[in-house]
Amino acid sequence: MSTTTPHPVRSPSANEGPARPPRRPAAAARRRSRWSEAKKSWRLHWQLYLLASVPIAYFIIFKYIPMAFNVIAFKDYSPVLGPWASDWVGLQNFERLFSNPVFVDLLKNTLILAFYLVLASFPIPILLALALNEIRNGWFKRTVQMVTYAPYFISTVVVVSMTILVLSPRIGIVNEGLKLFGIGPIDFLGEQDFFRHIYVWTDVWQTAGYGAVIYLAALAGIDPALHEAAKIDGATRLQRIRYVDLPGIMPTAVIMLILAVGNMMAIGFEKAYLLQNNLNLAQSEIIPTYVYKTGLINADFSMASAVGLFNSVVNLCLLLVVNFAAKRITGRGLWR
Amino acid sequence: MTTTLASKPRRTRPAAAKVREPLGDRMVLIVVKLMLAVTLALVLLPLIYIVASSLSSPAAVNSGRVRFWPVEFSLEAYQSVLSNSEILQGYYNSLIYAVAGTLISVTLTVAIAYPLSRKTFFGRNVLMTLLIFTMLFSGGLIPTYMVVQDIGLLDTRWALLLPNAIGVWQVIIARTFFANSIPEELYEASMLDGASGLRTLWSVVLPLSKPLLAVLALMYTVFQWNTYFDALVYLKDPDLFPLQIVLRNILILNTPRTGAVDLAQQMHQIQLANVLRYALIVVSSLPVLIMYPFIARHFTKGAMVGAVKG
């Protein structure tokens, strides 16, 4: 029953021990060719192959064919001819993009926003989880957890609307509060310098509680004996956080950081587009919003694909670099 | 007297142990609690402000007098939200998208995750790698748009149901659940009884997978309810707009609502406009809010599976 083929990728459930039958006809299985293995699997699971064919078709149609359609980034796309028959133009679209003065601003805006977002939204859930872990179980802990978790489920449209209302120069409560200190009404969304802060801190507001849940689970998994031993050795609370809790959640933190960086360039179109207005465009125009406008509003498919492809490649490179660095430094990566 | 004397040390012992905690540690604990209280306030106060404003009179809202409690209590805003046909249509559409989308998504996710969880399923590692690759590198907006256009989904309800039907993360969660939570003996017993692969899935595995199905259904429902991007890109027909697009048009773009109104009505609408937004925020978040206790529990479980297996 058991295959002894090595797992090329350390997939999520590849290492579970108990479910694997103890007896392994290792020598026999190794001799068996891949082909007969496939045949046997088909005989056993042909219904499951049919079942899986529908989702596989989904991944081909909506994920892999679009990847192939990226060829139009190297073509002069004509809707009449379609992506395959359109004329090749080589790297012309990219040359046009890189020589466009807008491009530098675009890249700068995207990178600054992305780095700022990771810098703020990576450590804060860890701090929140460490703090929650220090206090005893009770109504206060439960309340803080439930309340900070809730904004994660509010839609982006609603969060942006709330932001606009709360920060409104005329009736918003923030400006009402500032009035008490004699600070005149500030049009937060109209000042371009506020865009990044608004974007990042509303994001932290929305996701910190959700992020903390994962770290709380990791903290709960730390052996209490370690804390007991540290207490007996006279470690203070802060020392126990530093030398017991932090190393305990390190593996989780590394994975979360890799995932955060991996999503960096895929930074939310949704929110940036909603927060955009003509006054803050100089800082709020990022690659995803530019792709949308170029492609779907100006209908320049080739150019938009070129920008999108550039973005995806940069993103993939960032992910691989961080994964490599994490593996070097901590011995852990996405694929271990 | 003797009983009180005897019980006294027993009562004080835990207290004595607590007193021994050094001063520094107690200070740390106080600081931690203060920080958490501030965090709580920062998250909660905007929400309270929105709810309080939605329950206040238009005049009070427009003069900026509302803090964290309704001023001149009024339900006018809610009445006008619930009598707006555009909003009701959006609500109805979103319900359709949420229910149909969830059904499709959960079915497809199980259909791929279950075979992938079977250790004797040939090719599962290659397949899983190909799935995970789509998380790392996406085709991009325009190429995906071209596919949706080519197969004729543009401006149909399917455009919101199909292109993002399966989440790879959800597949990982489901696969991990099937592999770890269903005892291997059950598969063997079911096979000995002559059940086919599908029969085993339907009669043995799925009845044991209700917690998983709940997690998946909630995740997909919340996603479908909250997303607006696909609708923005693929839909032009206002009759198909989900609630989030309607919200965006009213809340952020501030476009005048359809239907001709006379001057008096228009004046009234301008007065109502601000307070209506607050009410709209509350009404649109209500379904998720009602489900929140379930969501909180199940999302945590789902997050755990993901976190454990990275």
UniProtKB/TrEMBL annotation, chain A:
Belongs to the binding-protein-dependent transport system permease family. This is Sugar ABC transporter permease. Keywords: Cell membrane, Membrane, Transmembrane, Transmembrane helix, Transport. Pfam families: BPD_transp_1. It is a multi-pass membrane protein. Its main location: membrane. The lineage of its organism: Bacteria, Bacillati, Actinomycetota, Actinomycetes, Streptosporangiales. Residues 1-32 are annotated as: Disordered. GO terms for cellular component: plasma membrane. One of its GO terms (biological process) is transmembrane transport. Residues 107-322 form the ABC transmembrane type-1 domain. It is found in: Cell membrane. The chain crosses the membrane at residues 48-74, 111-132, 152-171, 204-222, 243-269, 301-326.
Automatic annotation (TrEMBL), chain B:
Keywords: Cell membrane, Membrane, Transmembrane, Transmembrane helix, Transport. The chain crosses the membrane at residues 28-52, 95-114, 126-146, 200-223, 275-295. GO terms for biological process: transmembrane transport. PROSITE patterns: ABC_TM1. It is found in: Cell membrane. It holds the Pfam family BPD_transp_1. Its main location: membrane. Residues 91-291 form the ABC transmembrane type-1 domain. InterPro entries: MetI-like, MetI-like_sf. It comes from the Bacteria. GO terms for cellular component: plasma membrane. It is a multi-pass membrane protein. Belongs to the binding-protein-dependent transport system permease family. This is Sugar ABC transporter permease. The lineage of its organism: Bacteria, Bacillati, Actinomycetota, Actinomycetes, Streptosporangiales.
